[in-house]
Amino acid sequence: MSARVDGISHSSHFVNTTLTSRTQGLLGQFIGHPVMAMLSQWKHNYQTRRQLAELPDSILDDIGLSTHQVQRELNKKFWQD
């Protein structure tokens, strides 16, 4: 199947990949960096809290964290700092 873009006939694969690239570029310009940074922080929060949950009490004692402090951190939502 072919389509017309900018007055030129192109195959559907070319049109789809070109439009997808343009859309991603626009999103990247307008919301890409701040959104990606926020998502990255959320992922980091989730991962580090899961790792904290797996630490044995002896390690928590060594790094100076109480069970109460750990539970308070683990009860936070991934978007909370």
- Count of DSSP strands: 2
Give the number of domains.
1
The whole-number mean of residue pLDDT values reads: 77
Helical run tally: 3
Judging from the principal axes of the Cα atoms, what is the shape?
Answer: elongated
Low-confidence stretches: 1-6, 8-19
Q: How much helix, percentage-wise, in residues?
A: over 70%
Largest sheet data: 2 strands, antiparallel
Cross-sheet strand order for the largest sheet: 1-2
Distance between the termini: 50 Å
Query: Cα-atom Rg, whole angstroms?
Result: 23 Å
Helical/strand content category: mainly alpha
Percentage of residues in strands: 5-15%
Give the ordered list of helices and strands.
Answer: EEHHH
Description of the structure:
By secondary structure, this protein is mainly α. The protein has one domain (2-74). Helices cover 70% and strands 10% of the residues. The chain has helices spanning 12-54, 57-62, 67-74, and strands spanning 2-5, 8-11. It has a two-stranded antiparallel sheet with strand order 1-2. A hairpin with a 2-residue loop joins strand 1 (2-5) and strand 2 (8-11). The longest helix is centred in the middle third of the chain and has 43 residues, at 12-54. It is elongated.
Tell me the layout of helices and strands.
Blueprint: E1 2-5, E2 8-11, H1 12-54, H2 57-62, H3 67-74
Helix pairs in contact: 1-3
